[in-house]
Specification:
2 copies of one chain form a homodimer.
Chain A: H1 2-22, H2 27-43, H3 45-62, H4 66-72, H5 76-91, E1 99-104, E2 110-117, E3 120-125, H6 130-141, E4 145-149, H7 155-171, E5 179-181, H8 188-195, E6 202-206, H9 209-218, E7 231-235, H10 241-253, E8 262-268, H11 272-286, E9 289-292, H12 294-297, E10 304-305, H13 308-311, E11 319-325, H14 328-338, E12 343-347, H15 351-360, E13 365-370, E14 387-389, E15 397-399, E16 405-416
Parallel strand pairs in A: 3-4, 3-6, 4-5, 7-8, 7-12, 8-11, 9-10, 9-11, 12-13
Antiparallel strand pairs in A: 1-2, 2-16, 14-15
C-alpha cells in the first residue's frame, strides 16, 4: 500500500503547488481554460464516444444493471449538454477576489473580507462521466485545484474526458496539475485521499449513500456531504385547496429518483376532507403507491398502512407515505424526528403559520407554497451545482461556486499601529 | 469508561433538545438571559472569588507556574470585565433569522438565505475561568446550546460561574440545558465529546497548541481551530520609512505573548539602509532579542544568526527573526513556506505591490500598512470573539457570532410547481 500512499502524496503536492498559482489566476485565464476544454470535447467527440463504448461493453459483460448503464452512457446529446454546461460556467461571475463589507473601524483601519478559494478539492464520484468535466470546471472557476477519482465502470470515458481537461488547462497557460485524475482503481487510493489533510482542503463525494457514508467515516479532511433526501410537504389547515393539490402532486411525481422529491406528505386533519380525497385519486391514477397512517388508510382501500420504517425511508420511487396530524406543532415535530434536513415545504395562506414554519424547521431548504422539487442550484440561481449539502458546517443546501470558497480578512491602513 | 460515554450521551441529548427551542428563541429572551447572568455574577461576587481562591490555593500546592496562576486568577476588576463583556454581547445585533439575498428567480419563486444557529457547540478550554461566561454568552446569543469543558485547575471557579449561567438562563424562561458544564475532570470525557457527532455540531478548543492538536486528531465533529500564529511583517522597497518603523516595532513589541504578534520581519534589500538600522536600534533598546539572516546579522554584533528553525517558530516572546530578501516574490514565497496562515502585513506606498500582496498571500488576515496586532475580533468590528480560526473551512480569522451560525435557504412561492 506504500505505493498508493506515495501516489496520493505526489498528487497532493502537485495539487497544492498548482493551487498557489491558480488562486491568483485571472478570470480570463480560467475562462479560457473552460472554453478550451469545451473545444477539446467537440474535437475529440469520436474518441470520447469510443472510450465510452468500451466502458459500456465492459459494464454489460459484468452484468451492470440498466439504470447504471444509463448513467454511464454518453452520446452526442449528452456531450452537447456537457459543452453547454461549460459555457454556462464561463458566463458565471468569478467569485474569487470579491471584496465585501469593507468598513472603517474606530481605530481608523478599514476591514473587509475577500473571497478566496478553499485550495485543493478532492471529488469522488461514481459512474457518471460528466462529473469529470463538471467538477473540474467548477473547481477551476472557483480557483481550486482538484483531484478527481471516478468510478471504475467509467474508467475509459473518464480518461478520455480528462485528456480534454488537461489539454484545455495547459493551452490556457495554467499549471497542468490544476486538475488531476487518480488513475488507479485501487480502493485504498480513496482512503488515502480522504485522509490526506496536509494536501486536501475539502472532499465532495458524489454518489449513493453507501459511498458518502464510507467516505465520511474514514475522512480526516472536511467532507461536504449529502446523505438522505427525506423531504416533507405539509398541507396546513389554511392551505389553498388547489395550490395544495398541485404542489403535493408535483413534489412527488415530477421525478421519482431525485433527492428533492417529497417522500412524506403531512396533512392537517381539518384540511383532509377538502384536499386529500382528490389528491389520493390523482396519485393513484399516476400509479403512485400510497402508504398512510391509520386515518389516511381509511380514505381508500388502495392505501397500505404505513409502518414506523416508512417515515424513515427515502423511497426514490413512485411511493409516498401520508400522515394526518392534528396541529402544526405535530407536523414540525414529525419533521424534526424523521427529516434528513434536506427540504420541507408548507402549503398555507396563513401568514403566522408560514412565518413559524420557516423559522422553526431546521432544514437546508424551507419553503412556503412551492414544490420541494425546486431545491436545486440552478433553480436557486447559483448558476451551477456541485452537490447538495445536508450538513450545516461551512455550506448548506445546493452548493455552487461560493461553497468552494472561503473568505479572508483584509485590512487597509495608513501606518496604523495598535495601542 | 461506559459511564463517561453515558454522561456525554445524556449531555448531548439534553443539548440537542435545548437547541430545538433555542433556535427560535426571541432576541429579548436571549438578551434577558445574558443580563440575568451578569446580575447573578454581581450578586455572587463573594462566593465566586472564594471558589477562585480555592483553585488558586490548589494550583499553588500543585506548583503551577506564575503565568498559569495569573490566567486562573479572578478579582473584582476581572469580574467587572466579565460583566462588561456580557453587556457588550447584549448590545450586539442578533444574527439569527437575518434574511439576505431574497431574489426572484425565473420560475417566479423567491429564494433567499436565513441565518440559523449551528445547533450544539462544544467548547473545551484551559485555565481561564472567564471563558465559561464568554463562551456561554456567545453561544446563547447565536442561538446555540453549548457544552462547556473547562480545565481542572479552574474547577471551583468554573462551577461558581456556571451556577450564574444556569440561574440566568432559567430566569429568562429558556431551557436550562442551553448551557451545560461537564463536571468530571476525567479526560475520557473530552474524547467522547469530540467524537459525539450525533449530538455536537462543532467544537471550539480554546487553549495552547497541544490541546488544539490533541482535539483535532481525535475529533469526529468539525473543529474550529487555531494553531500557530507565525505572523510576518514585510517591509517593501517602496515602504514609507516612518510607517515601516512604527508598524514593525508595534507589531512585535505591543504584546509578546499574543498570536497576532509579528514573529518574522522580512525586509526588501533596497529598503534596508534607510529603515533597518533605526529599527534594530529600537528593538534592542526595548530588549528584543534579534535573530537575523546572514545579511541582517552583519548590521549589528548583537544580532544572533537565525537557523532554519527560527523561521518556523512562534516565539510568543521578546524575540524576532529578521530576513532580508531581494524581491517581493521572495517575500511571498517565504510567507507561503513558513507562515501559519494567521496574519501578514505589507508596508508599502506602491499600489501594485499592495494589491498583489493582498491577492497572493493566503492567510486569514492580510494587511497593508497596518500592524499585525490589529488581527482581533473587536478591532475588526465583530463585537466579540470566541476564537481565531486558522482553518479555511467554514470560518477564517477572528470568529464572532456569525462564525457560530449557518445559512439555510428559504423559498417563497405562490403555488409554484416545477416543470
Amino acid at each position: 500500500m506504500d505505493s498508493i500512499k506515495n501516489l496520493i502524496t505526489t498528487l497532493g503536492e502537485n495539487a497544492k503547488n498548482a493551487a498557489k498559482t491558480l488562486r491568483s489566476a485571472t478570470t480570463m485565464a480560467k475562462n479560457s481554460a473552460l472554453i478550451n476544454i469545451a473545444n477539446q470535447i467537440k474535437q475529440n467527440r469520436a474518441s470520447i464516444l469510443k472510450a465510452n463504448k468500451q466502458d459500456l461493453a465492459n459494464g454489460k459483460n459484468k452484468g451492470l444493471e440498466a439504470a447504471l448503464l444509463d448513467r454511464l452512457m454518453l452520446d452526442n446529446e449528452r456531450l452537447n449538454d456537457i459543452v453547454e454546461s461549460l459555457n454556462q460556467i464561463v458566463n458565471l461571475p468569478d467569485p474569487i477576489g470579491e471584496i465585501t463589507d469593507l468598513k472603517y473601524q474606530p481605530s481608523g483601519i478599514q476591514v473587509g473580507k475577500m473571497r478566496v478559494p478553499l485550495g485543493v478539492m478532492g471529488i469522488i464520484y461514481e459512474s457518471r462521466p460528466n462529473v469529470t468535466i463538471d467538477a473540474a470546471a467548477l473547481c477551476l472557476k472557483s480557483g481550486n485545484s482538484v483531484i478527481l477519482r471516478g468510478g471504475s465502470e467509467a474508467v475509459y470515458s473518464n480518461h478520455a474526458l480528462y485528456a480534454c481537461v488537461k489539454q484545455g488547462i495547459t493551452q490556457a497557460g495554467l499549471n497542468e496539475n490544476c486538475a488531476q485524475l487518480i488513475d488507479t482503481q485501487n480502493r485504498e487510493a480513496v482512503i488515502e485521499l480522504v485522509q490526506a489533510s496536509d494536501y486536501i482542503d475539502a472532499i465532495i463525494p458524489r454518489g449513493g449513500k453507501g459511498l458518502v457514508e464510507a467516505i465520511s467515516n474514514s475522512a480526516k479532511v472536511p467532507v461536504i456531504k449529502h446523505l438522505d433526501g427525506i423531504c416533507h410537504t405539509y398541507i396546513d389547515k389554511d392551505a389553498d385547496t388547489q395550490k395544495a393539490i398541485n404542489i403535493a402532486f408535483n413534489a412527488k411525481t415530477r421525478r421519482y429518483g431525485v433527492c428533492n422529491a417529497t417522500e412524506t406528505l403531512l396533512v392537517h386533519a381539518s384540511a383532509v376532507s377538502r384536499i386529500l380525497p382528490e389528491l389520493i385519486a390523482q396519485y393513484l391514477a399516476k400509479g403512485v403507491e400510497l402508504r398512510g397512517c391509520k386515518k389516511t388508510a381509511k380514505l381508500s382501500n388502495k392505501i397500505i398502512t404505513a409502518t414506523e420504517q416508512d417515515w424513515h425511508t427515502e423511497y426514490l420511487d413512485a411511493i409516498l407515505s401520508i400522515r394526518i396530524i392534528n396541529s402544526m406543532s405535530e407536523a414540525i415535530n414529525h419533521i424534526e424526528q424523521y427529516s434528513s434536513g434536506h427540504t420541507e415545504s408548507i402549503i398555507t395562506e396563513n401568514y403566522t403559520s408560514g412565518r413559524r414554519f420557516i423559522t422553526e424547521v431546521d432544514s437546508a431548504s424551507v419553503m412556503i407554497n412551492a414544490s420541494t422539487g425546486f431545491a436545486d442550484g440552478f433553480e436557486y440561481g447559483l448558476g451551477a451545482e456541485i452537490g447538495i449539502s445536508t450538513d450545516k458546517f461551512h455550506v448548506r443546501g445546493p452548493v455552487g461556486l461560493e461553497g468552494l470558497t472561503s473568505q479572508k480578512f483584509i485590512v487597509l491602513g495608513d501606518g496604523h499601529t495598535r495601542k
